[in-house]
């Protein structure tokens, strides 16, 4: 925890829905993220003591491959322990990542590295493709596939959502290592169809 606290300086806003003392509106800067949060990414600790996306690690691993995403280093709010379960989301209007507490047989989504990186992937995609000088190039299915691919690259593992399900820790939400293809595997669910995109990236 001491290493994490040293990183609370500025850059990423961390807010806790449960309003414990000392948790709301802390700031986590990219400079010390890698040192503060060991490994690839257990970015939110129990009781919402800390929530962060490892932007520094993104720059080190993928920044030169993704290309310029203007605004990526701007402050970003991360809301943890929200009063819902079994999901997480990125909100472009507030530039925030939002994670739900454990419940309904799902673990806390803010404690699953794959999910944290997936939501961060939405931010990268939004800045890189939806808010560009050339206009919007947004597509929800492509965005879901891109977010999964970024998560897989960051974790060096194609499985998305490991540890999310309480009853079966080995069960995953999706897998970028797949043989899905367009148009035969298109469905009405952009998360499922997005695996066509993430599978192409992973290949």
Would you write up a description of this structure?
The protein has 203 residues and is an alpha/beta fold. The protein is built from 7 helices and 7 strands, in the order αββαααβββααββα. It has helices spanning 2-6, 33-36, 55-61, 63-66, 113-130, 140-155, 190-202, and strands spanning 12-16, 26-28, 76-82, 88-91, 96-100, 159-160, 174-175. It has a 5-stranded mixed β-sheet with strand order 2-1-3-5-4, covered by helices on one side. Strand 4 and strand 5 (96-100) form a beta hairpin. The radius of gyration is 16 Å and the shape is globular. The relative contact order is 0.12. The model is unreliable at 1-53 (pLDDT under 50).
Calculate the terminal CA-CA distance, rounded to whole Å: 38 Å
Radius of gyration, taken over Cα atoms and rounded to an integer in Å: 16 Å
The helix/strand class is: alpha/beta
What is the number of helical segments per DSSP (H or I, 4+ residues)? 7
Describe the sheet with the most strands: 5 strands, mixed
- What is the strand tally? 7
User: Fraction of residues in helices?
Assistant: 25-40%
User: Taking all residues together, what is the mean pLDDT?
Assistant: 73
**Which segments are poorly predicted (pLDDT under 50) over 5 or more consecutive residues?**
1-53
The ordered string of helix (H) and strand (E) elements is HEEHHHEEEHHEEH
Across the major sheet, the strand order is 2-1-3-5-4
* Cα shape: globular
β-strand percent reads 5-15%
């Amino acid at each position: 925890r001491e290493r994490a606290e040293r990183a609370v300086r500025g850059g990423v806003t961390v807010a806790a829905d449960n309003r414990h003392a000392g948790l709301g509106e802390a700031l986590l800067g990219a400079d010390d993220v890698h040192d503060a949060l060991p490994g690839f990414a257990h970015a939110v600790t129990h009781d919402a003591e800390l929530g962060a996306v490892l932007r520094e690690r993104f720059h080190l691993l993928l920044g030169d491959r993704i290309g310029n995403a203007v605004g990526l280093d701007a402050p970003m709010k991360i809301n943890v322990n929200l009063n819902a379960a079994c999901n997480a989301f990125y909100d472009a209007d507030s530039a925030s990542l939002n994670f739900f507490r454990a419940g309904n047989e799902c673990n806390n989504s803010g404690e699953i590295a794959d999910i944290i990186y997936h939501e961060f992937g939405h931010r990268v995609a939004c800045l890189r493709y939806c808010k560009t000088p050339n206009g919007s190039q947004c597509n929800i299915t492509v965005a879901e596939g891109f977010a999964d691919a970024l998560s897989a690259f960051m974790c060096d593992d194609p499985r998305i959502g490991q540890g999310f399900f309480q009853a079966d820790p080995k069960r995953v939400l999706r897998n970028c290592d797949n043989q899905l293809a367009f148009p035969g595997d298109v469905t009405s669910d952009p998360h499922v169809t997005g695996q066509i995109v993430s599978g192409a990236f992973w290949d």
